[in-house]
Write a structure and sequence with these properties.
The complex is a heterodimer of chains A (357) and B (162). With 357 residues, chain A is of the alpha/beta class. Chain A has 2 domains: 35-198, Peroxisomal Thiolase, Chain A, domain 1 (3-Layer(aba) Sandwich); 203-356, Stage V sporulation protein AD (Peroxisomal Thiolase, Chain A, domain 1, 3-Layer(aba) Sandwich). Chain A has 10 helices and 14 strands. Chain B has a domain at 33-134. With 162 residues, chain B is an all-alpha fold. Chain B starts with 16 loop residues before the first helix and ends with a helix. The chains are: A alpha/beta (357), B mainly alpha (162).
Chain lengths: 357, 162
């Protein structure tokens, strides 16, 4: 019926699909939350490690920490420093002091939200910790926007971080272990991003958010997270377009979190099957953060990936007036190392937020 | 009719994971068998040549030793090199390129132990290094003991009848 080679990358070729679209089970439609007192993105900050700095987007990041341990005694302490400097940087860029921030909403990939909890200890701001794997940034932005929109809070700071060394140790093997990664695996981004949402001021507005549902199409391979997360992205995107009565080309840019090259190709195909044409206005942060020579296979992953790219590259371009309407959907794979060994499939989620200049 | 409008039918409420997984399998890139085999042959073969070179060297230096002892010295030398390379931080690059060749029992085992010890040193010598040292190589030890016990029992039973 249809022969499409959509986006050939790194040896993955698309087969002819002669069947109807893959269906995702839904009980209740997701609800788009529109903000009347839309919060302003008054400060944004991204901090990345050396590998990300050497990637194609290197010059766009606000700050880079080249030493993998920056003088700390372990990688966890370094991740805390990453997140803390991103949050403090964002607050400074918004011309605020720590006393003026009502809430700190942040998350990371580690067990018990170690990084976020220790950052909250250091900053001494009322704190909400979130875990939604790699989609934590959009979840934090959505909740932050609700808090500001309700009129109860003036300034809320949202931040996330991820670190290659700490994530690798928790989810996979020790760093120096000489094992091979499959060609469809991804590389956890070392980086952090933070955004300040304010009730007043000038700038980009966060006008709508949609909290997605957990989608699980039965992918069990822990290395193939792009394929696991693509249906969640497609589901949230189609729900958002349906309830806002828009089509994909109404947006200047649709940003997905960390599907990677393979995952974003799958997402394009799944979207096309259900009549959503993702063209030049679709980018995936995981696919663009590294180039092919950096041996990261399908690209970046981790919540720091989309947070650092959106808070620097995308929002800076919005400030320059290149884009006026950006839909940002981060995706997260909500598995644990134990659940994978127990033979469970990978549940995935995607939350959406809409930025308007 | 706009592009985004069709495809939201009532019949879309069913799970279709099997077909999705078949599709994912068809688009997921796989490692090339020829390439992996040649890489692991190169690295594995090189490790064996190196061990043999150590053996010949020790045979020249220590002419009075038993051949078994010289073999042990050669093995100790390549284990030492594997741990040294792990500590210097490039055994993982060898492993990434060499695959199963770098996973050879003795050097791969040394690398796994050294990598775990280094990784968990941040939790201290007792609760970090000592506890987690065997986290990757535990299965090798368990199955080594288990199957050699089984082999011993089978050997014993066979010897009863011969």
């Amino acid at each position: 019926m249809r022969t499409t080679v959509l986006h050939k990358s790194d040896g993955c070729e698309f087969v002819n699909d002669e069947q109807s679209s893959v269906i995702i089970d839904t009980v209740q439609d997701s609800r788009v939350l529109f903000f009347k007192n839309a919060p302003i993105l008054s400060g944004t900050m991204s901090v990345v490690g050396k590998k990300e700095f050497l990637g194609p987007l290197g010059e766009h990041f606000d700050s880079v920490k080249k030493d993998p341990k920056i003088g700390k005694k372990n990688f966890e302490a370094e991740e805390i420093d990453f997140l803390q400097s991103a949050i403090i940087g964002a607050i400074q860029k918004a011309n605020l002091s720590l006393q003026e921030v009502d809430f700190l909403i942040c998350g990371d990939l580690l067990n018990q939200l170690t990084t976020s909890n220790y950052v909250a200890r250091n900053l001494k701001i009322p704190y909400l910790g979130l875990y939604s794997a790699c989609s934590t940034m959009t979840q934090a932005l959505g909740i932050g926007a609700l808090l500001v929109d309700s009129g109860q809070c003036k300034n809320v700071v949202c931040g996330v971080s991820s670190h290659f060394a700490t994530a690798e140790r928790q989810f996979r093997t020790p760093l120096e272990y000489g094992g091979q990664k499959p060609p469809y695996s991804q590389w956890t981004v070392t980086g952090a991003g933070a955004t300040v949402l304010s009730s007043s001021g000038q700038g980009i507005k966060l006008t709508a958010a949609l909290f997605g549902q957990v989608v699980d199409l039965g992918v069990t391979d822990i290395a193939n997270m792009g394929a696991a997360m693509a249906p969640a992205f497609v589901h949230t995107l189609s729900q958002f377009l349906k309830h806002t009565n828009t089509i994909a080309s109404n947006y200047d840019l649709i940003v997905s979190g960390d599907l990677g090259k393979l995952g974003s190709d799958i997402a394009r195909t799944l979207c096309l099957e259900r009549g959503i044409l993702l063209g030049q206005n679709y980018i995936d942060c995981g696919a663009i953060i590294y180039d092919n020579s950096q041996k990261t296979y399908q690209g970046g992953s981790g919540c720091g990936c989309s947070a650092s790219v959106v808070n620097s590259f995308v929002l800076n371009r919005m400030k320059q007036g290149m884009y006026s309407k950006v839909l940002y959907l981060a995706t997260g794979a909500l598995m644990s190392p134990q659940s994978c060994f127990q033979g469970e499939t990978i549940p995935c989620i995607s939350h959406a937020v809409l930025f308007e200049a | 009719m706009r592009v985004g409008d069709f495809a939201y039918g009532e019949n879309s409420y069913q799970l279709d994971s099997k077909r999705y997984n078949e599709y994912v399998k068809s688009v997921t890139p796989q490692t090339s068998t020829v390439k992996s085999l040649s890489h692991s042959f190169a690295i594995g073969g090189f490790t064996c040549v190196l061990a043999q070179a150590f053996y010949e060297l020790f045979a020249v230096i220590l002419p009075n030793q038993e051949p078994d002892m010289i073999g042990t010295y050669a093995l100790m030398s390549i284990v030492f090199l594997a741990i040294l390379f792990t500590g210097l931080g490039f055994y993982d690059a060898i492993g990434r390129w060499g695959g199963a060749g770098a996973f050879l029992p003795i050097t791969g085992f040394a690398n796994s132990m050294a990598a775990s010890s280094m990784e968990f040193y941040t939790e201290g010598l007792v609760f970090g290094t000592s506890v987690k040292m065997f986290s990757l190589v535990g299965p090798v030890i368990v199955h080594g003991v288990l199957w050699s016990t089984v082999a011993g029992i089978i050997h014993y039973i066979i010897m009863l009848f011969i």
